[in-house]
Amino acid sequence: MDRMTAMTVFVEVAERGSLTAAADVLDMSRAMATRYLAELEGWLGTRLFHRTTRRISLTAGGELALERCRKLLELSADLQASVIQDRDGTPLHGQLRITCSTSFGQSQLAAAVAHYVARHPDVRVDMLLLDRTVNLVEERVDLAIRITHELDPNLIARQLSVCRSRLCASPAYLQARGMPVRAEDLASHNCLTHHFVGKSLWQLRRDGRDMAVAVGGNISANEASVLLQAVRAGAGIAMLPTYQAAPLLRSGELTCVLPDYDVPSMGIFGVYATRRLLPATVRSFLDFLAERFGDEPDWDRDLA
After folding, report:
1. What domains, with CATH codes, occur in the chain?
2. Cα–Cα dist 290/286, whole Å
3. Confidence (pTM)
Protein backbone atom coordinates (compact mmCIF):
# COMPACT_ATOMS: atom_id res chain seq x y z
CA MET A 1 0.00 0.00 0.00
CA ASP A 2 1.18 3.53 -0.82
CA ARG A 3 0.68 4.90 2.67
CA MET A 4 1.25 8.54 1.70
CA THR A 5 -1.51 8.30 -0.90
CA ALA A 6 -3.75 6.53 1.58
CA MET A 7 -3.20 9.30 4.13
CA THR A 8 -3.88 11.90 1.43
CA VAL A 9 -7.21 10.21 0.63
CA PHE A 10 -8.08 10.03 4.33
CA VAL A 11 -7.36 13.72 4.97
CA GLU A 12 -9.26 14.83 1.85
CA VAL A 13 -12.32 12.80 2.87
CA ALA A 14 -12.18 14.21 6.41
CA GLU A 15 -11.86 17.81 5.21
CA ARG A 16 -14.52 17.58 2.49
CA GLY A 17 -16.94 15.33 4.34
CA SER A 18 -17.45 13.27 1.22
CA LEU A 19 -15.63 10.31 -0.27
CA THR A 20 -16.90 11.17 -3.75
CA ALA A 21 -15.71 14.79 -3.50
CA ALA A 22 -12.29 13.64 -2.27
CA ALA A 23 -11.98 11.15 -5.13
CA ASP A 24 -12.84 13.87 -7.66
CA VAL A 25 -10.19 16.22 -6.28
CA LEU A 26 -7.58 13.46 -6.31
CA ASP A 27 -8.60 12.34 -9.81
CA MET A 28 -9.30 8.75 -8.82
CA SER A 29 -12.37 6.55 -8.78
CA ARG A 30 -14.58 6.31 -5.71
CA ALA A 31 -13.79 2.61 -5.54
CA MET A 32 -10.06 3.30 -5.48
CA ALA A 33 -10.48 5.90 -2.73
CA THR A 34 -12.54 3.43 -0.71
CA ARG A 35 -9.79 0.82 -1.12
CA TYR A 36 -7.13 3.22 0.13
CA LEU A 37 -9.24 4.04 3.18
CA ALA A 38 -9.80 0.37 3.94
CA GLU A 39 -6.10 -0.40 3.65
CA LEU A 40 -5.20 2.53 5.91
CA GLU A 41 -7.72 1.36 8.50
CA GLY A 42 -6.21 -2.12 8.31
CA TRP A 43 -2.70 -0.76 8.77
CA LEU A 44 -3.71 1.45 11.71
CA GLY A 45 -5.96 -1.21 13.22
CA THR A 46 -8.86 1.15 13.77
CA ARG A 47 -11.96 2.38 12.02
CA LEU A 48 -11.53 5.96 10.83
CA PHE A 49 -15.07 6.96 9.85
CA HIS A 50 -18.65 6.37 10.85
CA ARG A 51 -20.49 5.86 7.56
CA THR A 52 -24.22 6.13 6.85
CA THR A 53 -26.12 6.57 3.62
CA ARG A 54 -26.30 10.34 4.24
CA ARG A 55 -23.13 11.39 6.00
CA ILE A 56 -19.62 10.47 6.98
CA SER A 57 -17.96 11.50 10.24
CA LEU A 58 -14.72 10.80 12.06
CA THR A 59 -14.48 8.22 14.81
CA ALA A 60 -12.45 8.98 17.95
CA GLY A 61 -9.56 7.06 16.40
CA GLY A 62 -10.03 8.97 13.16
CA GLU A 63 -9.74 12.32 14.94
CA LEU A 64 -6.43 11.26 16.47
CA ALA A 65 -5.15 9.93 13.16
CA LEU A 66 -6.20 13.04 11.23
CA GLU A 67 -3.91 15.41 13.12
CA ARG A 68 -0.91 13.11 12.71
CA CYS A 69 -1.57 12.38 9.05
CA ARG A 70 -1.78 16.12 8.33
CA LYS A 71 1.60 16.65 9.96
CA LEU A 72 3.20 13.78 8.05
CA LEU A 73 1.85 15.03 4.73
CA GLU A 74 3.04 18.56 5.46
CA LEU A 75 6.53 17.29 6.30
CA SER A 76 6.54 15.26 3.11
CA ALA A 77 5.53 18.29 1.02
CA ASP A 78 8.16 20.47 2.69
CA LEU A 79 10.85 17.87 2.02
CA GLN A 80 9.83 17.47 -1.60
CA ALA A 81 9.73 21.23 -2.19
CA SER A 82 13.14 21.83 -0.64
CA VAL A 83 14.75 18.95 -2.58
CA ILE A 84 13.31 20.13 -5.89
CA GLN A 85 14.42 23.71 -5.28
CA ASP A 86 17.92 22.64 -4.27
CA ARG A 87 18.16 20.24 -7.18
CA ASP A 88 17.42 22.43 -10.16
CA GLY A 89 17.13 26.03 -8.94
CA THR A 90 14.25 26.58 -11.38
CA PRO A 91 12.90 30.16 -11.18
CA LEU A 92 9.36 30.48 -9.84
CA HIS A 93 6.72 31.10 -12.47
CA GLY A 94 2.97 31.01 -12.97
CA GLN A 95 -0.04 32.85 -11.55
CA LEU A 96 -0.76 33.42 -7.87
CA ARG A 97 -4.34 34.37 -7.00
CA ILE A 98 -4.69 35.96 -3.55
CA THR A 99 -7.41 37.75 -1.60
CA CYS A 100 -7.56 40.02 1.43
CA SER A 101 -9.52 42.94 2.87
CA THR A 102 -9.48 46.27 1.07
CA SER A 103 -7.78 48.05 3.98
CA PHE A 104 -4.92 45.57 4.32
CA GLY A 105 -4.54 45.22 0.57
CA GLN A 106 -4.20 48.94 0.00
CA SER A 107 -2.04 49.76 3.02
CA GLN A 108 0.31 46.75 3.17
CA LEU A 109 -0.18 43.92 0.71
CA ALA A 110 0.09 45.91 -2.53
CA ALA A 111 3.62 47.05 -1.69
CA ALA A 112 4.55 43.54 -0.55
CA VAL A 113 3.34 42.07 -3.84
CA ALA A 114 5.30 44.69 -5.79
CA HIS A 115 8.51 43.68 -4.02
CA TYR A 116 7.74 39.98 -4.47
CA VAL A 117 7.20 40.15 -8.23
CA ALA A 118 10.35 42.27 -8.56
CA ARG A 119 12.20 39.35 -6.96
CA HIS A 120 10.32 36.76 -9.07
CA PRO A 121 9.50 38.45 -12.41
CA ASP A 122 8.01 35.28 -13.95
CA VAL A 123 5.22 35.19 -11.31
CA ARG A 124 1.96 37.00 -12.03
CA VAL A 125 -0.21 37.99 -9.05
CA ASP A 126 -3.98 38.45 -9.25
CA MET A 127 -5.25 40.35 -6.17
CA LEU A 128 -8.89 40.23 -5.08
CA LEU A 129 -9.71 42.88 -2.46
CA LEU A 130 -12.97 41.72 -0.94
CA ASP A 131 -14.65 42.45 2.38
CA ARG A 132 -16.13 38.97 2.73
CA THR A 133 -14.92 35.45 3.37
CA VAL A 134 -13.94 33.76 0.12
CA ASN A 135 -14.47 30.08 -0.70
CA LEU A 136 -10.96 29.23 -1.86
CA VAL A 137 -11.94 26.19 -3.90
CA GLU A 138 -15.02 27.60 -5.63
CA GLU A 139 -13.35 30.93 -6.47
CA ARG A 140 -10.01 29.36 -7.44
CA VAL A 141 -8.04 31.37 -4.87
CA ASP A 142 -4.57 30.12 -3.93
CA LEU A 143 -4.16 32.14 -0.75
CA ALA A 144 -6.35 34.28 1.51
CA ILE A 145 -4.93 36.76 4.02
CA ARG A 146 -7.31 36.81 6.97
CA ILE A 147 -7.20 38.88 10.16
CA THR A 148 -9.06 37.42 13.10
CA HIS A 149 -9.04 36.85 16.86
CA GLU A 150 -9.53 33.12 16.47
CA LEU A 151 -9.13 31.12 13.28
CA ASP A 152 -11.39 28.18 12.48
CA PRO A 153 -9.34 25.10 13.51
CA ASN A 154 -10.54 23.29 10.39
CA LEU A 155 -8.75 25.77 8.15
CA ILE A 156 -5.22 25.22 6.92
CA ALA A 157 -3.30 28.35 7.83
CA ARG A 158 0.03 29.86 8.76
CA GLN A 159 0.30 32.89 11.03
CA LEU A 160 2.23 35.64 9.29
CA SER A 161 2.08 38.54 11.73
CA VAL A 162 0.02 40.33 14.35
CA CYS A 163 -2.64 43.02 13.93
CA ARG A 164 -2.80 45.60 16.71
CA SER A 165 -5.36 48.39 16.96
CA ARG A 166 -5.68 51.80 18.59
CA LEU A 167 -8.58 54.09 19.41
CA CYS A 168 -8.13 57.09 17.13
CA ALA A 169 -9.69 60.50 16.59
CA SER A 170 -8.77 63.71 14.82
CA PRO A 171 -7.46 66.69 16.82
CA ALA A 172 -10.44 68.72 15.56
CA TYR A 173 -12.93 66.21 16.97
CA LEU A 174 -11.17 66.07 20.34
CA GLN A 175 -10.99 69.86 20.53
CA ALA A 176 -14.75 70.06 19.97
CA ARG A 177 -15.81 67.11 22.16
CA GLY A 178 -12.97 66.71 24.65
CA MET A 179 -10.48 63.91 25.28
CA PRO A 180 -11.86 60.79 27.05
CA VAL A 181 -9.97 60.03 30.25
CA ARG A 182 -11.59 56.71 31.23
CA ALA A 183 -13.12 53.94 29.16
CA GLU A 184 -16.53 54.87 30.58
CA ASP A 185 -16.21 58.30 28.94
CA LEU A 186 -16.67 56.69 25.52
CA ALA A 187 -20.40 56.46 26.24
CA SER A 188 -20.69 60.21 25.67
CA HIS A 189 -18.71 60.18 22.42
CA ASN A 190 -19.57 59.38 18.81
CA CYS A 191 -17.87 56.00 18.34
CA LEU A 192 -17.62 54.79 14.75
CA THR A 193 -17.87 51.00 14.63
CA HIS A 194 -17.02 48.06 12.39
CA HIS A 195 -19.77 45.63 11.42
CA PHE A 196 -17.76 42.56 12.42
CA VAL A 197 -15.38 43.80 15.14
CA GLY A 198 -16.90 45.56 18.13
CA LYS A 199 -20.21 46.66 16.61
CA SER A 200 -21.63 47.65 20.01
CA LEU A 201 -18.97 46.55 22.52
CA TRP A 202 -15.29 47.45 22.49
CA GLN A 203 -13.01 45.03 24.31
CA LEU A 204 -10.28 46.89 26.19
CA ARG A 205 -7.58 45.99 28.71
CA ARG A 206 -5.85 48.07 31.37
CA ASP A 207 -3.45 46.97 34.09
CA GLY A 208 -4.23 43.34 33.31
CA ARG A 209 -8.00 43.84 33.65
CA ASP A 210 -10.30 43.15 30.70
CA MET A 211 -13.43 45.19 30.18
CA ALA A 212 -16.23 45.43 27.63
CA VAL A 213 -17.34 48.99 26.95
CA ALA A 214 -20.69 49.74 25.33
CA VAL A 215 -20.27 52.17 22.43
CA GLY A 216 -22.48 53.72 19.80
CA GLY A 217 -22.36 56.30 17.05
CA ASN A 218 -23.89 57.48 13.82
CA ILE A 219 -21.51 55.71 11.39
CA SER A 220 -20.83 51.99 11.04
CA ALA A 221 -19.11 50.22 8.16
CA ASN A 222 -17.87 46.82 7.08
CA GLU A 223 -14.42 48.12 6.08
CA ALA A 224 -11.75 49.83 8.16
CA SER A 225 -10.83 52.16 5.28
CA VAL A 226 -14.25 53.82 5.48
CA LEU A 227 -13.91 54.34 9.23
CA LEU A 228 -10.43 55.78 8.78
CA GLN A 229 -11.65 58.41 6.33
CA ALA A 230 -14.58 59.30 8.60
CA VAL A 231 -12.20 59.75 11.54
CA ARG A 232 -9.90 61.94 9.45
CA ALA A 233 -12.96 64.08 8.62
CA GLY A 234 -13.59 64.61 12.34
CA ALA A 235 -16.68 62.41 12.64
CA GLY A 236 -15.71 60.59 15.85
CA ILE A 237 -13.56 57.95 17.51
CA ALA A 238 -12.84 54.59 15.86
CA MET A 239 -10.87 51.44 16.63
CA LEU A 240 -8.38 51.30 13.75
CA PRO A 241 -5.66 48.78 12.86
CA THR A 242 -2.15 50.17 13.26
CA TYR A 243 -1.13 48.76 9.87
CA GLN A 244 -3.36 51.49 8.48
CA ALA A 245 -3.39 54.24 11.12
CA ALA A 246 0.27 54.27 12.23
CA PRO A 247 1.53 56.86 9.68
CA LEU A 248 -1.29 59.25 10.62
CA LEU A 249 -0.63 58.80 14.33
CA ARG A 250 3.06 59.53 13.82
CA SER A 251 2.35 62.64 11.74
CA GLY A 252 -0.17 63.99 14.25
CA GLU A 253 -3.06 63.95 11.79
CA LEU A 254 -4.73 61.48 14.18
CA THR A 255 -4.45 61.25 17.96
CA CYS A 256 -4.44 58.07 20.03
CA VAL A 257 -7.39 58.07 22.43
CA LEU A 258 -7.07 56.37 25.84
CA PRO A 259 -3.43 55.37 25.21
CA ASP A 260 -3.27 53.62 28.60
CA TYR A 261 -5.82 51.06 27.39
CA ASP A 262 -4.86 48.14 25.15
CA VAL A 263 -7.04 46.70 22.41
CA PRO A 264 -6.67 42.87 22.16
CA SER A 265 -4.60 42.04 19.11
CA MET A 266 -5.56 39.71 16.25
CA GLY A 267 -3.53 37.35 14.11
CA ILE A 268 -2.75 37.88 10.43
CA PHE A 269 -2.97 34.48 8.73
CA GLY A 270 -2.28 33.04 5.31
CA VAL A 271 -5.09 30.54 4.61
CA TYR A 272 -4.91 27.97 1.81
CA ALA A 273 -6.97 25.01 0.63
CA THR A 274 -4.61 22.07 0.97
CA ARG A 275 -1.15 21.14 2.20
CA ARG A 276 -0.72 18.44 -0.41
CA LEU A 277 1.19 19.49 -3.51
CA LEU A 278 1.16 23.12 -2.40
CA PRO A 279 2.38 25.17 -5.40
CA ALA A 280 5.90 26.47 -5.03
CA THR A 281 4.67 30.04 -5.61
CA VAL A 282 2.25 29.81 -2.68
CA ARG A 283 4.89 28.37 -0.37
CA SER A 284 7.40 31.00 -1.49
CA PHE A 285 4.95 33.87 -1.04
CA LEU A 286 4.00 32.66 2.46
CA ASP A 287 7.68 32.58 3.41
CA PHE A 288 8.14 36.05 1.94
CA LEU A 289 5.21 37.57 3.88
CA ALA A 290 6.24 35.92 7.15
CA GLU A 291 9.72 37.38 6.77
CA ARG A 292 8.49 40.80 5.64
CA PHE A 293 5.85 41.29 8.35
CA GLY A 294 6.99 39.12 11.26
CA ASP A 295 5.92 39.16 14.91
CA GLU A 296 6.86 42.85 15.23
CA PRO A 297 5.83 44.42 11.90
CA ASP A 298 7.49 47.60 10.68
CA TRP A 299 4.25 49.56 10.85
CA ASP A 300 4.28 49.22 14.67
CA ARG A 301 7.91 50.27 15.03
CA ASP A 302 8.46 53.32 17.24
CA LEU A 303 4.70 53.70 17.68
CA ALA A 304 4.12 55.02 21.20
Report:
1. 3-87 (1.10.10.10), 96-158+267-296 (3.40.190.10), 165-257 (3.40.190.290)
2. 6
3. 0.72
